[in-house]
Input
Amino acid sequence: MLNQFLLVVQVFFFLIGSYQVVLSLFGWYRKKERIEREPTKSFALLVAAHNEEAVVGALIENLLKMKYPRELFDIFVICDNCSDRTAEIVRSYPGVYACERFNASQRGKGFAIEWMLKELWKHPKSYDAIVMFDADNLVATDFLTYMNEDLCNGYRVIQGYLDTKNPHDSWVSAANGMNYWFCNRLWQLPRYNLGLSNFLGGTGMCFETKLLKEMGWGATSLVEDLEFTIRCIQRGIKPKFNFDARVYDEKPITFRASARQRLRWMQGHFDVTRRYMLPILWQGIKERSLVKIDAALYIFNAYNFLIGFLITATLWFDLLLPGERHFDSIYSLAPNWIAVPMALYIYAQVPLAMLLEKVHWKLYLRLITFPIFFFSWWPITFHAFFTQNNKTWSHTQHTRVLRLEEVQGKQM
Output
């Protein structure tokens, strides 16, 4: 009886996994974004910063070199509960606004953005769109040109391509980079190609000002980007993925820092799943909306990963016990013509994404240590499930000072 129950559970999660595998096939091709519109949209660039004195200057200098009319964008740095020289450094750049916020009880990026938007609506100058970055980022100089194009074409929420600023620093930062290349190419791009909704990634995000005023921000969970994405989809608004608008994000160098960051993400993911999955799934079924059903399956991934871990651990434990096996694996029962190709393709997805993204050849050597990073998601997810009510935001320290030319040079 228990074996049959476990098989039913395995079939359910096998079908969800198969859906994602089939979806990924539509990321093998892409159309290059075209620029046809003249710069007309004005932008407020918001930079979220908490004790970022080491890196914020490099980003400001980068943004001031954007290939976009300077009169059409302003830079606002949210100096959120800073106890270092972040605000002082920001003020040293003429025309850049240092917006200081002090609130010990409401800590975290979501609260900081909500506060900043309220301040921005009081600003004497109005803007067509709001773009959000993190202080550790670097941004391609044509980023706003692509955002202008998408806004002129009627898109209201746009997510840029999240690349990695420092993949060569350590095996951990390389693994984080692989994770992002995989998600960009085989999760985000297929959804764009098929007309489904894309998902916000926390930085490199562009929002129509009118929409933000209508909706409010209201996303103060540990994964404010995912929460806002779901709220958009509920209203029938599909965030769009712009593959050519590049943002370079600093990844943790040490395993400990990476584990803390991923724990925060998974805690927030479980929280968002608990609050939004069933409502958006039911809404999608009633409206026969594949976009909303896909969104429900997307945010279910936290549980997909958790239960996948528990099933795998159970099957391996059963295999190691002496005597006959008590549980059957769906892969041992499935025909070889299904099980073998799917297993091989799943293992090949990360190097395939790297190949499609033309990643530097040296980073392929880091595939040797990538399984350590991948399998570490399992205990992190397990721990996150039991601590998902923890809303304490943890800051990831950023110290890697690079310039855009260095990053783009290393990637060539």
